[in-house]
Every structure is written in structure tokens, then in C-alpha cells.
Automatic annotation (TrEMBL):
This is Glycogen debranching protein. It comes from Streptomyces subrutilus. One of its GO terms (biological process) is carbohydrate metabolic process. Residues 32-207 form the Putative glycogen debranching enzyme N-terminal domain. InterPro entries: 6-hairpin_glycosidase_sf, 6hp_glycosidase-like_sf, GDE_N_bis. It comes from the Bacteria. Pfam families: GDE_N_bis (PF14742).
Length: 662
């Protein structure tokens, strides 16, 4: 694990870092590892991060269409799904008098590099149209594009049905169907002359690949996610759930070491790869869609763990992640190591096959062994070491201990009672050291400095204190806080300082340094908001859970139901709206999984597949009205549940051996 850079001496300026190109206005299509990033007008101009990518390589950066010597007038750009988008434009050729366009242009672009350009004539007489497509690429890596280090365009060569480019061992080919009438490599030009009668249309298909194969394969990963759906009184729930599942599928990638195992990439455009913590949290929140994704992700991370017998033995490696201006970066490897036994324990309850659990159990025990030896002299876990004792890190450690104990006991392994006692001792220390009393009821510290001083910031990390995890028999694990302090945290999260009306702020409004665009200092993070909704619902705080849920759904609607990983939002007032963060990934794994997590939390599904039971504890009051979730998976079989307008839950479909309990 790397550590934060040392502090700069006074008066020494920081090296200027290149800013990420803005991505918030882009129309992004993804079918990992394929990616298409387009401006809203659809013309790929080579600016910024625009282009067709595969496995992190930009195959095409310029694709400019001209019809009759004119640039089409953009009318609309819209997403048609996670992996494709449509761009509508018009052309006025002058064949007819008046201002009306007489040619319609529809471009449908796919993440796999396929684009279909359809021209339709609205003219009253036949028209003869020259159609030109200007192509170009720099064959740059996405990382170089993000850093502003991409080079000039690569010279093109004529391909049998289009153009090709090659440089430094990289290659791209764009083939056209029908083949162009002319191809000019020096200017990257493909040209057709089309004749259209009244009402007629013609289509040109462009296929951009890394080689001469006609079409780039996409969707290669076997889909481990069930084809579930939501429907109910609020139609937005269906759209949000559907988009969330589509985006999770679009982010699936194979593990290069074991192609049979798939994981969810962290997000696009910047993190189209494995991120240990985010990929594992997304798999956990997607457990209602089946245990296959969690099992594969756990296998991948188990193979990456540190071996041997040293201080880091059993730990999952991971990069540092920024924590905002108040704290140094945290380590995603620590977070993933603590999540591993908890996710395995919960996946077992949702119905992961017993042989799969058994194969992963030694890795979970290794994570727990690392945790036992990683506590500092003060009894808390630093992240990184040496460094602050973060509030959420203690919550993750506590959950790992309790759910790990449940897992060990269920699998006949020793140590369960020892871990329960360990968790009880951590709970006592946490309440004594992390809780800051005050006339308003107090609050948890965001962290303890290494010298023991508390950092009295109220942040979204407090939501993790309510996420206790699921135990056998449909029981929730106890949290780090007693009931009175849990109630105070719920009150704080539901107050306007944290609930901005669009979700949970990452830092309270009144805190010094609050920034509505700050990724850890005020912006709304979809993942933390979903954790808060589910945790509040499980703890019985209906009002606060419902308020955050409605705000998050309203935000999802604003973003076309594809929530970015974070966004800015001032306090909600009439006619206001959340604002996109220019550097946010969208789609992002944890933001997509948040839609599944929040909506299934409304039903309060608590399975214990090995015991053959499932409990339902719906959120009272039914904040979205009646809701039906179908196509879920419990015990590997279809599961459907309905929540009435009165907040009553009913199982409509389940495995034959599954009994309603709790």
C-alpha cells in the first residue's frame, strides 16, 4: 500500500495537476470494455475525451458527418440504453422554398463501435445528396487523454471498405457498409453520393474495431444478474430500477486471470476496471439480483490477497482514495478487506451455493486474522497506518467481526464467540471515544487523530454506523451505537444540514470548508445516500428514510435515472435542481447499485437461504405507494414481493422450500 505524500514545506507551491476533462455533458455508452463518449450533438470532433474506446484505447476520436456540404443541425441527443444512444439532426438542402428542413438524419451509436447513419428525405421531389464522413484518431490511451497527453492524429490508410490507422503496435479500422464511393486517406474522408426519392431513406453503417474483423464483440461476459424489474404506483421506480440493472450489466468485465469470473468496473469514463472496495460494495448491494456477481468478485479479490505470515498477510491490496480536505487519503484495500467476510456472510444468506462459500471461507478467515493484528494500541483501526481512525472504518471492522462470527458459527469453524466479544469491546470503546456530547444530543466524530483528538465534523460517513449487516434468521447485527445515539444519528442525517432534499450531503452544510461540489466535503454521493436510506429503514426511522429516498429518486429522475457517483446540490427549493459534477463517473458501479439497494430496502427482504426462511420488514408508510419487485433471486430461484399502499409485504413467488418467517 502506498502512503500519502509528505506535507510541503511552507512557501513551496504545489505542482500544478492537470484537470480531468469535463464529462458531465457527454452522452456515454458502455458495454465494458467498449465505450463511446459523444457530445450532445453527436459529432465526434476530437476534442476532450470524445471518441470510441476499447479496453482503454481510443480507436476513433473524430467522426464528423456532412450532408450536401453542410453540417447537420443538431436537434436532440438521447440515451437508448446503457450501451447505445441516438442523435437526431436535420438538413435544409434548399431544394424546397421556405425554412423547413427537408432531410432528417438519425445516428445510432453503440458502445461496441458500430454507428448507423440513416438519412430520410422529406422533399417533394428526388434529391441527390453528397454525404461525407471525416474520420481520425490519435490511438491514445484513455489515461493519456485524461492527463492531457494525447498526441496528434495518426495518418490514415485506405482499407478495403474504409480507413485504417496504426501506430506503436496499436491499430484501428473503420469499415463502411455500403462501401464509400471515394476514400481519401490524406484527409480521413469517406464519401458517398445518395439518391433519395420522396419519403425514402438510406442507411450507412460504420464499424470501428481494433482489427479487420467486421464487428467488435461486445457483451462477452456471462451475465450473473437476474432480469428483475420494479413496478408500482410511482412509475419512476420502474425506470430507476431498470436503468440501474442495465448499467450494472454494462459495467461487467472479465477477470484477465480467470475469464470465467466477472466483476463490476468502478465507473466510466475514468475507472473502467476493478476497484476492490467499490466493486465489492456494488456486488453486495446487487445481492437481490443473485449471488453470482458477489461470488465471482470475492474469488477475484481472494486471489489478490497478500500471502505469507507478515503484518499484511491476509489483506486485500488497493489504491488510496481521496478523502477531501479534512483527512488524508484512505486505503480502498483496507475497506475491501473488512468488507470481504461481511459480503460472504450475507451472500450465503441470499443463497450462495455451499461449496462456493466453503472455497472462500479460508480467505474470509485470513481477512479476519489481518483485522485482529491491525488494531492500534488504542484499540481502533487506522486507515492508513499510521493515520486517522475513521468513523466508517470502525463501522466496517465491527460489521466484519459480527458477520464473520455468524459465518464461522454457521460453517462449523472455531472463533465465533471470540469475534463477538471482540466486537462488543470495540462497541464500548467507540461509544466512549468517538461520541462527542453536546446540548443538541451530540454527534459521532468523523475520525480520531493519531493522538486521540476527535475531528468534530459531521459527514456522510456517519451513515455507515447504521449499516449493521444481516445475520442468520433474518436478524440485523447490532451497531456500534446504543439506541439513544442511533436515534440522534438518524435525526442528524434527516435534518436539512445533511439532507439537502436531493440526497445526503457528504459533509454537513454548516461545517467549515463545506463545498457543494466537494467530493467528500459537501457533494451528494449516491452510495452514501443509499446506505443511509437502507440503514434508517432497518433501524426503524421511517420519516428520515422516506425523506432521503424521495430526494434520491427525484435526483435520479433529473439525471435520466442514471445517477452519477456524486453531484452538487444546494438546499432544495421550488424549481431548483441538482447539478452535475464535471469529474464524476456516470455510470458508476456503486451509484447504479444504489438504485437496486434503495428500492429493495423498501420491501425489507431478510433471507436465510440455508435455513429455508425469508422475512419481510417493509418500510412503514409505503413512501412510493404500492410497489412490486419481481425476478429477484433468493436461494437461486425467482423471488417476487409486493408492498401495498399500507406498507404491508407479501411474497408472490419464491422457491418451494422457502418459508416466510421473522
Amino acid at each position: 500500500m502506498s502512503h500519502p505524500a509528505p506535507l510541503r514545506p511552507p512557501g513551496v507551491p504545489a505542482a500544478r495537476r492537470h484537470e480531468l476533462p469535463p464529462a458531465h455533458g457527454a452522452v456515454i455508452c458502455v458495454a465494458a470494455p467498449c465505450l463511446a463518449i459523444s457530445p450532445e450533438h453527436g459529432q465526434l470532433t476530437g476534442r476532450g475525451i470524445e471518441g470510441i474506446y476499447r479496453a482503454g484505447r481510443r480507436l476513433l476520436s473524430r467522426c464528423v458527418l456532412r450532408v450536401g456540404g453542410r453540417d447537420p443541425v443538431a436537434v436532440q441527443g438521447r440515451s437508448l440504453g446503457a450501451d447505445r444512444a441516438a442523435f437526431t439532426a436535420t438538413v435544409r438542402t434548399g431544394a424546397e422554398p421556405g425554412p423547413d428542413p427537408d432531410i432528417g438524419v438519425e445516428r445510432v451509436r453503440h458502445a461496441d463501435g458500430t454507428e448507423r447513419i440513416t438519412l430520410r428525405s422529406f422533399a417533394a421531389r428526388p434529391v441527390r445528396l453528397p454525404v461525407e464522413v471525416l474520420l481520425g484518431t490519435d490511438l491514445a490511451e484513455l489515461a493519456a487523454v485524461a492527463a492531457g497527453h494525447c498526441g496528434p492524429e495518426v495518418p490514415a490508410g485506405v482499407h478495403a471498405a474504409g480507413l485504417r490507422w496504426s501506430a506503436g503496435g496499436a491499430q484501428a479500422v473503420t469499415a463502411a457498409d455500403p462501401p464509400p464511393d471515394d476514400a481519401l486517406a490524406s484527409s480521413g474522408l469517406l464519401r458517398w453520393v445518395l439518391e433519395l426519392g420522396p419519403g425514402e431513406s438510406r442507411t450507412i453503417e460504420l464499424r470501428t474495431t481494433q482489427d479487420r474483423v467486421a464487428r467488435a464483440p461486445a457483451g462477452q461476459v456471462a451475465n450473473p444478474l437476474a432480469d428483475a424489474r420494479a413496478e408500482g404506483d410511482d412509475p419512476r421506480a420502474e425506470a430507476w430500477f431498470r436503468t440501474s440493472v442495465e448499467d450494472l450489466r454494462a459495467l461487467l468485465l472479465r477477470d484477465p486471470a480467470e475469464p470465467g469470473d466477472a466483476f463490476v468496473a468502478a465507473g466510466v469514463p475514468w475507472r473502467l476496471g476493478l476497484a476492490p472496495a467499490e466493486s465489492l460494495w456494488a456486488a453486495r448491494m446487487a445481492l437481490p439480483l443473485g449471488t453470482g456477481l458477489a461470488e465471482a468478485t470475492l474469488r477475484i479479490l481472494a486471489r489478490s490477497r497478500h500471502g505469507g505470515s507478515g503484518p499484511g498477510a491476509g489483506r486485500i491490496p488497493g489504491p488510496l482514495r481521496g478523502a477531501g480536505p479534512q483527512l488524508p487519503p484512505g486505503c480502498t484495500g483496507t475497506e475491501a478487506t473488512l468488507a470481504f467476510p461481511a459480503v460472504l456472510a450475507e451472500a450465503r444468506l441470499w443463497g450462495m451455493p455451499q461449496d462456493g462459500v466453503a472455497r472462500l471461507l479460508p480467505a474470509a478467515e485470513g481477512c479476519l486474522d489481518w483485522l485482529r493484528g491491525a488494531l492500534g494500541a488504542d484499540g481502533f483501526l487506522a486507515d492508513p497506518d499510521p493515520g486517522p481512525r475513521r468513523c466508517e472504518t470502525q463501522a466496517h471492522a465491527h460489521r466484519a467481526a459480527l458477520l464473520g462470527a455468524d459465518l464461522l458459527a454457521a460453517c462449523g469453524r472455531p472463533g465465533a464467540e471470540e469475534w463477538r466479544q471482540w466486537a462488543a469491546a470495540l462497541r464500548e470503546r467507540f461509544q466512549a471515544r468517538f461520541w462527542i456530547d453536546g446540548p443538541d444530543g451530540g454527534r459521532p466524530a468523523a475520525a480520531l487523530h493519531p493522538d486521540g483528538r476527535p475531528l468534530p465534523r459531521l459527514t456522510g460517513a456517519a451513515a455507515h454506523l447504521l449499516d449493521t449487516g444481516l445475520l442468520s434468521g433474518g436478524r440485523l447485527a447490532p451497531g456500534l451505537l446504543d439506541r439513544a445515539r442511533t436515534e440522534q444519528v438518524a435525526r442528524l442525517l434527516g435534518a436539512p444540514a445533511m439532507d439537502c432534499g436531493w440526497g445526503l450531503r457528504s459533509m454537513a452544510l454548516q461545517e467549515p470548508g463545506h463545498n457543494p461540489f466537494g467530493h467528500r466535503s459537501g457533494a451528494v454521493r449516491a452510495y452514501e445516500s443509499a446506505v443511509a436510506v437502507a440503514g434508517l429503514a432497518q433501524a426503524g426511522f421511517e420519516k428520515e428514510a422516506a425523506g432521503l429516498l424521495r430526494g434520491l429518486l427525484d435526483a435520479a429522475e433529473t439525471f435520466g435515472y442514471r445517477l452519477p457517483e456524486m453531484f452538487a446540490a444546494e438546499q432544495r427549493v421550488s424549481r431548483s435542481a441538482p447539478l452535475p459534477h464535471p469529474a464524476a463517473c456516470r455510470p458508476a458501479a456503486v451509484a447504479a447499485a444504489a438504485g437496486v439497494h434503495v428500492l429493495t430496502a423498501l420491501a425489507g427482504i431478510r433471507p436465510d437461504a440455508p435455513a429455508g426462511t425469508v422475512a419481510l420488514v417493509p418500510l412503514p408508510g409505503a413512501p412510493l405507494g404500492a410497489l412490486r419487485l419481481s425476478g429477484l433471486r433468493v436461494s437461486g430461484k425467482p423471488f417476487a414481493v409486493r408492498v401495498s399502499r399500507l406498507g404491508l409485504g407479501m411474497v408472490e413467488e419464491a422457491a418451494d422450500a422457502l418459508q416466510l418467517g421473522g
